[in-house]
Amino acid sequence: MYAIDLKSQVTPYKEIEEKIELMKKQTQVFVAIKNLDYIVKGGRLPKWVKNIADFLNIRPIMTTKENGKMGAAGIVKGIENFPEKLGKFVLNKLDSNLSYDIAIGHCNILNDGEKLKNIIKNGHDNINSIHLLDMGCALGVHAGPGSLAIAIQSSA
Q1: How many helices (H) and strands (E) would you count in the chain?
Q2: What is the DSSP letter of 125?
């Protein structure tokens, strides 16, 4: 969306590339996985980790690390009130002095996506834009049904 904005302002291609690289550093992505079966089947999580998570009734919140790989950012205890728990986690990451553009992805749980959108919108005073969309297939195939993703992009 940022790139489209720049393009509509007739920004030269090379400048768009440079600005996108800078914007990547201001963007965080979090994925809360409700059902660990899919991430195990996709080879992204060992089955023994799933067994421990199931026993402890916890679900991971994954994020992209600086090296581009996925890693743990936190956990959600239980799957009851999943959007509320993820919303609380994300709101704790937002700086009250900054404004944000946000995109929320859902994997076949539109109602939970709407709940998360409202929690974020009502929980922070400086939201420039917030969009809700279907999670893409590349991420959705590993995260599985019931998962939520949220990208937060800060601006001064």
Answers
A1: 7, 6
A2: S
